[in-house]
Amino acid sequence: MFNAPKVKIGIVAVSRDCFPESLSVNRRKALVDAYKAKYGEDAIYECPVCIVESEIHMKQALADITAAGCNALCVYLGNFGPEISETMLAQQFNGPVMFCAAAEETQDNLIQGRGDAYCGMLNASYNLKLRGVKAYIPEYPVGTAAECADMIHEFEPIARALVGLKGLKIIGFGPRPLNFMACNAPIQQLFNLGVEIEENSELDLFESFKNHEGDERIPAKIKEMEAELGAGNQKPEILPKLAQYELTLLDWVEAHKGSAEYVAIAGKCWPAFQTQFGFVPCYVNSRLTGMGIPVSCEVDIYGALSEFIGYCVSEDAVTLLDINNSVPADMYDESIKGKFNYKHTDTFMGFHCGNTCSRKLSACSMKYQLIMARALPEEVTQGTLEGDIVPGDITFFRLQSTADAKLRAYVAEGEVLPVATKSFGAIGIFAIPEMGRFYRHVLIQNNFPHHGAVAFGHYGKAIYEIFKYLGLEGTDLGYNRPAGNLYPTENPFA
Length: 494
Description:
Layout: E1 9-14, H1 21-39, E2 44-46, H2 55-67, E3 72-77, H3 83-92, E4 97-102, H4 117-131, E5 142-143, H5 145-166, E6 168-174, H6 188-193, E7 196-201, H7 202-211, H8 218-229, H9 239-256, E8 262-266, H10 272-277, H11 282-291, E9 295-296, H12 301-314, E10 318-325, H13 329-335, E11 347-352, E12 365-368, H14 370-373, E13 382-388, E14 392-401, E15 407-416, E16 426-431, H15 435-444, E17 451-455, H16 460-469, E18 477-479
Parallel strand pairs: 1-2, 1-3, 3-4, 4-5, 6-7, 6-8, 8-9, 13-16, 15-18
Antiparallel strand pairs: 10-11, 10-17, 11-16, 12-13, 14-15, 14-17, 15-16
Helix pairs in contact: 1-5, 2-3, 3-4, 5-12, 5-16, 8-9, 9-11
């Protein structure tokens, strides 16, 4: 991936010294073989130095997986396991950690071949809590070699996002627009997550843009845009400025990345942007997001953070949309009712001016921004990429700091329906089961802003686990509860 880490998971088997070490040796080998057979070997490393039975072994294993370049760790209980040294290994490893354990293989070998890892996982979890160590533990963490291989594979996108956050810098150009407090949030939690933030003035960006006038790379960039837009290139006169702006942002990223490995951008787009730059940046934002550099609108720092998590998990372009408007009753009755298994209140329209990557739109056209053009000359509002969002599975989610610097998040799975929106912008008709209740008792109740990140596919399981790993729990981690499962604030008599 261009702008996200490549995960390499070190698999370290552990053994309690009063159990046969051969159980862990043989079960580790079976696990690694099962993983390679199903998923290849690029993402894993089998620690061959030792089976960890003691603190000395723990140090040897830690040195080995570190030298091998592992940035994530799987502690595998081939038998009961040494609760002290195995959790010390997790504590001292610099990266995300998971634990899983071996199931017993056969009824014919329950004397010398019984490992009791089912029991050992309990003590491992207790010791992790004592040490204050975070670890990913699968929903049912005890399995056969093939089942544990699947668990490790499910850990990969979780680890990729967690590693990515530690190497991320969010570059902002602000401040937020006037009368737009919705996405304003303290940055303290960024530092708590290991994320760097660089906040710049619009004037800094404008100066850099002006310095790119006449850049010799502009003609080639215009050709890229023309090829992407095809028949949708309805505003060709604006492409030179958009190409100049794209080069400005790409050069800024390279010059300002600093010690960070990965970058996301929280961009400014109104109210003075259009009159001074002479266009709107939506299409360029969509292109950078398509390249793997997530860009949020309206200096939404936590929106950019959420997009980056979605990019790491999905390994695909993401977008940021307003949870924007209800679906008209006549549209629901004509195009949705009886054709899809959703209530009217399960549906809404997700919209933004034109920041969604072209390959995530059914068709696209370069246009002017209608809302802005109501108050400004149309010629300075050109640069949006409009079209209906492609139908299919989606995950809607957000990680957010509250005004008092407390982390909250939500995640919900749903789909974009294959129904024409009959509207403008980058827009789609979204359907999420029990959206109406979720909207009221998670989004409104917990004061989330209107921006939500969208990953194209069902990635709720991984994103939910990432939020858990970051320490969110209870009502601070929301999801769309099924009918009959009441939210704490839901009126049972309603």
